Amino acid sequence: MERDDKMIAAFEQAQRIGASIGLKFGEEFSGGGSDGNFTAGAGYTTLDGLGPEGKGMHALHEHVVISTLPRRAALIAALLRDWKMPDEA
């Protein structure tokens, strides 16, 4: 995904909402594929990597840290509730 002004604004909004529920996260680049590449490629502002924490991606020992599910679900709910597109803010 290409980093542009709308994506930066959306990420900063997600950081603010996350901070309001005690969730701190940063921006990170990683290789590989994501369904988000399709939406970003179609011109939609896209954030990726907001799901639960885990380890062992794509390996036999891949797992989700169950205790992260409630806070991550709260983040997604708050994003949906409070979302404003960067040009609407």
In short:
This protein has 89 residues and is mainly alpha-helical. The protein has helices at 5-20, 36-41, 69-82, and strands at residues 54-55, 63-64. A two-stranded antiparallel sheet has the order 1-2.
Overview of this protein structure:
The chain has one domain (5-82): Orthogonal Bundle (DNA polymerase, domain 1), CATH 1.10.150.900. It has a two-stranded antiparallel sheet. The longest helix has 16 residues, at 5-20. The chain is 40% helix and 4% strand. The mean pLDDT is 86. It has 89 residues and is mainly alpha-helical. The protein has helices spanning 5-20, 36-41, 69-82, and strands at 54-55, 63-64.
Write the layout of secondary structure elements.
Blueprint: H1 5-20, H2 36-41, E1 54-55, E2 63-64, H3 69-82
Antiparallel strand pairs: 1-2
Helix pairs in contact: 1-3
**Structural classification:** mainly alpha
Q: Roughly what percent helix?
A: 40-55%
Would you list the SSEs in sequence order as H and E?
A: HHEEH
The biggest beta sheet reads: 2 strands, antiparallel
Number of DSSP strand runs: 2
Low-confidence stretches: none
Gap from first CA to last CA: 23 Å
The CATH class designation is: Mainly Alpha
CATH topology: DNA polymerase, domain 1
Mean pLDDT: 86
The rounded Rg comes to: 14 Å
Strand content: under 5%
- Describe the strand arrangement of the main beta sheet, using strand numbers: 1-2
Total helices: the number is: 3
Please name the CATH architecture: Orthogonal Bundle
As for the number of domains, it is 1
Q: Choose one word for the global shape.
A: globular
